[in-house]
Amino acid sequence: MRLHVGCAMWTHTPWQGRFLPHPLPPGERLRSYATWCDAVEGNTTFYATPTRNTVESWAGQTTPDFRFVVKLPKSITHERRLTDVDEELRSFLEAIEPLGPRAHALWIQLPGSFAPTDLGTLAGFLRRLPRSHRYAVEVRHRAFFDDARSERLLESVLARVDAEWVPFDTTTFFQSPPTSDAEREAWMKKPRVPRRSSALTDRPIIRYLGRDDTARTIEGWRHWIVTVTEWLREGRSPTVFIHTPDNADALMLARRFHEEVRSGLPELEPLPEPAPIEPAESAEPLTLF
């Protein structure tokens, strides 16, 4: 019984010297992060396909059961909108090959303008993908959440290739106006869609956005604690990514989420113990409150 948890990145300035040793050379940062969490979102690949040497370094810093959910480049999903992308896709798949089993799912995040009328394009793209990988699709067009027929059609397209629908739950974040610069920036950029909590496969993936107030973040994920616990009891193996607008406490919050699920499921395999560091005298204590 495995629950994997992680964050949107494995290196973040507010974590240095607080959660993770500082300084750390680039080739050791992911290794240190992986003592805290056993999954990470591969957001950097959205902006550029990494070199094979870079990906080999990622693999070398993690164990085979570590999970990368790797985002397809925006040139494929946003610029070409899944059409005429064979060369870009081939280059991307070759680059990430060194991850091996660590590439838990290839993440197809679609733009908000990608509508139900585009489902034929998505279906054709998914059919052409190699079956050597798992796939997960994130949509942001409101019709997929508000219109039952559009929802069913998308689920049908995904089910044909055993792909997962990745929800980005921002409902807690949008419950009240922003109170910090990071929250104000996120307010303008993050999708405002209803919560979705149905799994299509045995490996669901959740992205949850809380607030910079850690207590509000924890209160807002109660629904997911229940849902993830149910999935685990059904034999599924979920991956949950915890976000906040500034992500300052995201690393600790991800572990807190895992601990809350495990408190109700003691048989759940625990996370590894974080690598110890000696905090500076002026550093804040490692507490959420």
From TrEMBL:
Q: Bias category Low complexity: which stretches? A: 278-289
Task: Give a Pfam family name.
Answer: DUF72
InterPro entries listed in its UniProt record: DUF72, UPF0759_sf
Q: Which SUPFAM superfamilies match?
A: TM1631-like
**Region feature (Disordered):** 266-289
PANTHER family recorded: UNCHARACTERIZED PROTEIN YECE, UPF0759 PROTEIN YECE
Output this protein's name: Uncharacterized protein YecE (DUF72 family)
The organism is Streptosporangium becharense
